[in-house]
Amino acid sequence: MTETTEDQSAEVVLRLTDVVKTFPGVRALDGVQLEVRAGEVHCLLGQNGAGKSTLIKVLAGVHRPDEGQIEWLGQEFAPANPQAAMRAGIATIYQELDLVEDLSVAENAFLGHEPRVFGFVRRGYMARHTREILGKLGHAEIPPRRLVRSLPAAGKQVVSMARALSHDARLIIMDEPSAVLAHDEVANLFRIIRGLTAHGIAVIYISHRLEEIREIGDRVTVLKDGRTTAANLPARTTPTRDLVSRMTGRTIEYVFPEPAPEVSGAEELLRVEGLTRSGEFADISLTVHSGEIVGIAGLVGSGRSELLETIFGARRSEAGSVRMAGKHLRPGSVSAAVRAGLGMAPEERKSQALLLGEPIYRNVTLSTFSEYSRVGFTNVGREVQEANRIADRLDLRPRDVRRAVRTLSGGNQQKVVVGRWLLGDTKLLLLDEPTRGVDVGARAELYRVIRDLAAQGVGVLLVSSEVPEVLGLADRVLVMREGRVVREAPAGELDEETVLDLVMAGSLQVEEVTI
């Protein structure tokens, strides 16, 4: 672990020493060290799965650490819940903003600590005080009584900051705050952050974008596999190569099955040409052949998930074409995609792919349900029989397909989503973050399932934030950045550092960057 001795005069407001947090099957934090000073922007850097999300949830009072010590303003700190953390002066702005869309700006700013007199909410005071806070943030034009749902993404982010300041926050944690912002909105975000730090408020800024860290950050701490691999590095002058190298070399074991021998002359299943959706991705062309696994690496916001959804017909393209086995697919039609042999396992399986209260068999047969229904009656026995066949094929555990799918682990829920498409005539499977929320042991099982499908001739187009996963599973890799493919190569010709450099900075040759 490397430290710098720069700027030791400011007060240390937060210090973590050897913090550990364990979940079933994974040690998410493994002795984390972190020091944050008043009035600084402290950047937290690390790959997906490095422990950043768990760390901020520990600070926010969502999780309690199992070991280690947290000091806040010089005192031992262990918030029992998020409300306690807010009262202590630590506010967290998550990437998915936790605002109530149908409440006003002022009601969101004071949510959970509304000022009252004799039990009645002081709405006038809330509006006046919210207006003052918005003025300090440089956004006096936002009406306090306006409904949050009517605001753009940048405006909603300002409301989240106003909520933090309504609690007199001394530390604001920002998780990928620029992911949904346009370039000019990012510049305004940085202006607001500088205004906050000028008043002594500390900011923990989490981002994958190295150019942002160079511009807004003071110091950087790097996490890898739940450990601190570098602490308090100068944000503006630390070489890019140093930052990237401290993020790589995972200790978590990725157990990949042996790839099948390459088959020459395999049938082309999917051809995408010039596919475009404004603000999401542009001019994307790719192919997937029978039995081939093609991986897409890229950060959140790079357009990778939107690309998969557009290929599947869940979004309508504005330009370009999608062909399956040489036949043009109608844009924006999921049913046309399914009939052509496409299946998709989306990133948010619980909200987008599963009926959590329904039994496993009903979730497995969902995409082919019409085959089990005749004149208003459903052949449940046949549904169960087919689901049992899929459960055996995918080694689903537990095997009881009549139990509710919500009772399964994350890995087995994902098997149900994949298994659904094995009942139909699926030729190409689109997988978006297939192992998100899945423990290490279940990952190996899912990797085996994906490899087995490819060996049977199914094509796979895979999106993952886990660079080792893309490189270990895919035969060929496309790297996306800001909505465009910046590199395509066989997986064996790429390594983790190269891919990270392409998705984050594009300039590993730059030894020092200053602003």
UniProtKB/TrEMBL annotation:
<dbReference type="InterPro" id="IPR017871">
    <property type="entry name" value="ABC_transporter-like_CS"/>
</dbReference>
<protein>
    <submittedName>
        <fullName>Sugar ABC transporter ATP-binding protein</fullName>
    </submittedName>
</protein>
<dbReference type="InterPro" id="IPR050107">
    <property type="entry name" value="ABC_carbohydrate_import_ATPase"/>
</dbReference>
<keyword id="KW-0813">Transport</keyword>
<feature type="domain" description="ABC transporter">
    <location>
        <begin position="264"/>
        <end position="507"/>
    </location>
</feature>
<feature type="domain" description="ABC transporter">
    <location>
        <begin position="14"/>
        <end position="250"/>
    </location>
</feature>
<dbReference type="InterPro" id="IPR027417">
    <property type="entry name" value="P-loop_NTPase"/>
</dbReference>
<dbReference type="Pfam" id="PF00005">
    <property type="entry name" value="ABC_tran"/>
</dbReference>
<keyword id="KW-0677">Repeat</keyword>
<keyword id="KW-0547">Nucleotide-binding</keyword>
<dbReference type="InterPro" id="IPR003593">
    <property type="entry name" value="AAA+_ATPase"/>
</dbReference>
<dbReference type="InterPro" id="IPR003439">
    <property type="entry name" value="ABC_transporter-like_ATP-bd"/>
</dbReference>
<keyword id="KW-0067">ATP-binding</keyword>
<dbReference type="GO" id="GO:0005524">
    <property type="term" value="F:ATP binding"/>
</dbReference>
